[in-house]
Recover the amino acids of this structure.
């Protein structure tokens, strides 16, 4: 089929999937034409309905797998075809991490234009299921139904509790069983759903903005201590009955909260939170390479890495690569709740942590007190506004700089300030290898990329973290 007739809606068959691209999309080829789609795995022969005609490729929706790939697996989750949360469950895990590793190195070569560095093999996750310590669910007045369910007159569009359908704020798929967190979270969630229905509690309607219950957050630590957040319009007698029954049935819930959200969106970081019973936080513990432990308090609104086993290993890599043997001054940019700053503080002269979110800085200070760490200073504000020449003069120039920016990477002003300050070593942690490679390209003015190591924090997804070590040229 010629490219001229590939109009929107045209179905093209016989496309061989040859590679995995960014953001979970796969790359197909037929007759010299490149196609992009989702839900397929390398080696599949598929049919695609064209949705977009780009200059260099065609993008579409997969209609069918005509010849399955030898790499294709039967997904473990019953919700796989529609959930979107674990888009690679149909691909062998060894192949998943191989593709992630390849993509990281491609980004370094293509964007940073570097090929003379040490590429350490990706650190795969020992746990590929039940690895998360936090999941968020949404109550919905009328659950989303599949096409088969819609065509079945016996299926009623009843309330649901589950995950948003990809790309839709108002569609929620009811979840019976999710494999990403310890199994007891399914028991807790299903009990809450059943009892809420029996108590006559209403579920939220995102269009009318009505409904008593909005969201449910379940998080835990590695000691199997749980925190539960029930988020709703207001506490009523029925809500209190539900909370009491949950606590009685599931004593593993050590911290039980109700959060009142009467806003038009689901974000609750600025909403009033009420501790119903138990402790105001749970504690997670990570071990340094030296064997010493660092404790982290996790409150109802705290950010913490959702794969604690892999996060601990990632922090250990950062600790080793920072080379703290010379008692350095360390700056930790985008410090969040200070988790990495506190992790490396034992061998540092001092650590300066900077973070945009004030609430995260308050958590960092609490965690410093919890661990009796007194050589960390934390500052809240926009990185490009705080990290100035005067700030560095006041707090001392860094010997080692650790940076873990958001997906967008570092602001150009921040990169410029790093180049001016010229720390001996930079350990750059990134959740987006493309923006990391862009920043490394800028840092090449003074720095040499020594080595990288990808870390798989999210099995069955396209996401990958990458740690990079850069050293000042001439050092």
């Amino acid at each position: 089929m010629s490219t001229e007739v590939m109009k929107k809606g045209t179905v093209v068959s016989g496309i061989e999937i040859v590679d995995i691209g960014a953001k979970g999309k796969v790359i197909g080829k037929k007759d010299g034409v490149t196609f992009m789609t989702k839900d397929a795995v390398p080696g599949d022969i598929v049919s695609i309905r064209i949705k977009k005609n780009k200059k260099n490729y065609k993008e579409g929706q997969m209609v069918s797998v005509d010849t399955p790939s030898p790499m294709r697996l039967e997904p473990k989750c019953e919700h796989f075809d529609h959930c979107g949360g674990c888009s690679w469950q149909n691909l062998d895990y060894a192949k998943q991490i191989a593709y992630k590793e390849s993509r990281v190195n491609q980004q370094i070569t293509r964007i940073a234009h570097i090929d003379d560095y040490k590429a350490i093999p990706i650190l795969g996750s020992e746990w590929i299921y039940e690895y998360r310590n936090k999941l968020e669910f949404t109550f919905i007045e009328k659950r989303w139904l599949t096409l088969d369910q819609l065509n079945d007159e016996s299926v009623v569009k009843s309330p649901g509790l589950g995950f948003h359908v990809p790309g839709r704020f108002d569609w929620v798929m009811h979840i019976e069983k999710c494999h990403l967190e310890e199994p007891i979270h399914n028991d807790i969630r299903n009990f809450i759903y059943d009892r809420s229905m029996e108590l006559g509690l209403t579920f939220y309607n995102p269009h009318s903005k009505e409904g008593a219950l909005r969201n449910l957050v379940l998080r835990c630590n590695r000691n199997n201590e749980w925190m539960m957040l029930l988020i709703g319009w207001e506490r009523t007698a029925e809500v209190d009955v539900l909370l009491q029954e949950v606590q009685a049935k599931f004593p593993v819930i050590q911290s039980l909260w109700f959060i009142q959200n009467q806003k038009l969106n689901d974000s609750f970081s600025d909403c009033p939170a009420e501790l119903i019973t138990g402790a105001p936080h749970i504690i997670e513990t990570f071990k340094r390479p030296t064997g010493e432990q660092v404790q982290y308090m996790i409150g109802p609104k705290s950010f913490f890495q959702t794969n604690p086993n892999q996060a601990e290993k990632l922090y250990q890599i950062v600790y080793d690569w920072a080379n703290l043997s010379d008692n350095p001054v360390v700056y930790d940019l985008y410090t969040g709740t200070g988790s990495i700053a506190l992790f490396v503080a034992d061998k540092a002269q001092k650590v300066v942590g900077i973070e945009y979110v004030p609430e995260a800085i308050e958590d960092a200070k609490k965690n410093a007190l919890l661990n009796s760490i007194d050589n960390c200073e934390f500052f809240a504000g926009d990185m490009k506004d705080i990290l100035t020449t005067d700030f560095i003069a006041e707090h001392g120039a860094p010997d080692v700089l650790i940076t873990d920016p958001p997906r967008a990477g570092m602001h150009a002003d921040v990169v410029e300030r790093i180049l001016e300050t010229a720390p001996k070593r930079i350990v750059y942690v990134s959740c987006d290898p493309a923006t990391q490679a862009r920043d490394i390209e800028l840092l090449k003015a003074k720095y040499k990329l020594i080595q990288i190591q990808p870390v798989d924090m999210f099995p069955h997804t396209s996401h990958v973290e990458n740690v990079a070590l850069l050293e000042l040229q001439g050092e």
Observations:
- The first strand starts at residue 11 and ends at 20.
